[in-house]
Structures are given as C-alpha cells and as structure tokens.
Amino acid sequence: MNQTTDAPDTQLERRHYLYPGTIFVHRQPHLITTVLGSCVSVCLWNQTAQLGGINHYLLPLWNGEGLPTPKYGNVAITKLVEKVRAHSSPNDKLIAKVFGGASMWEKTEGLLAVGQRNVEFAIETLESLKILIVSSDLGGNQGRKVIFNSGDGTVLMRRQRAMRIVKTTD
Q1: Which of 19, 35, 60, 110 has the greatest number of CB atoms lying within 10 Å of its CB?
Q2: Which of the following is catalytic: 39, 77, 98, 126?
Q3: Which residues contact 138 (CB under 8 A, 6 or more apart)?
Q4: Residue 91 maps to which CATH number?
Q5: Is the predicted pLDDT of residue 14 greater than 60, yes or no?
Q6: Is residue 39 among the annotated active site residues?
Q7: In 10 A of CB 39, how many CB atoms?
Q8: Is 168 domain-assigned?
C-alpha cells in the first residue's frame, strides 16, 4: 500500500528564540519569538527582498566602555539595518515595527525610565535613518510577547499580565 502525504510547511518549522541583547537576520523565513519588558525590539522588513530581521536591546546607548554589543540600542539598530541591507538592493525601502518599552517599576523617573528612553531612542534613530515605522505597541506597564515572521513581515504581539515588584518589610 502506497501512502502519500503532503510535506509539512518547512517555513513554519524554522523558529528562533531571540534572547535579550541579540539580533536575528536570516535569508530563509523564520518565526522569531522574543519577550519584552522595558527592552525594545525593532522588526525591519524589506518587502522587495521578502526579508526581515529583528533585534532586542536592553538600554538605549552604549557608553563606549567594553565591547559594543547589541544590548544597546545604538549598536542594535545600526547592526540590524546593516544586516538587512546586506541582503537587499540599494534602493529597497525598509519599514519598521517597534515593540516594548514598558515601565516595569512603580517609580520611573530619570535614569530609571529605561523603557521610555529605549522607545525614544528607537523612534529618533529610525526617523534619522528615514525608515518609516508602520506599526508599534510601546510603553505602558505590561510586558509583551512578540512573534515576527521574517518571511512575510507580519508580527503577532500579546501583552503579558502586568507585574509589580512589592517590597515587604521584615
């Protein structure tokens, strides 16, 4: 008895979990999942090349000490754009979808407003690079789970239940 079955869609089998402080760009389509609190992820998409990439950064600016890593927005966004453009034609337009930047602490002012600073940095940087932000879900006090399909540029996003740190006294 001969049985034939359709081969599974290998596109959907290519998955990647994106850890904080990393970037993912691959020529083959992947479903990339990451979880954000005060961190920000920029999803870049090139419709012409049918290619996308994503980053996950923790702080807006690298201060110049140690190695420049994608833990910092100024490194993560620049490297992401470079990697996506490396797989693109020079005239291809990139679009962005930006997520995260929650306020995870009860009092967030000044340097403690990490989420807000991450969001502002992403918006300012993408504007300066003339990359249009077509979708975003930013700020608030809830984390987010993001699944980016680098094959078609779609994003599924779910807000996580708000969590608060409560101090107890002994």
Answers
A1: 60
A2: 39
A3: 40, 98, 99, 100, 101, 119
A4: 3.30.1330.200
A5: yes
A6: yes
A7: 27
A8: no
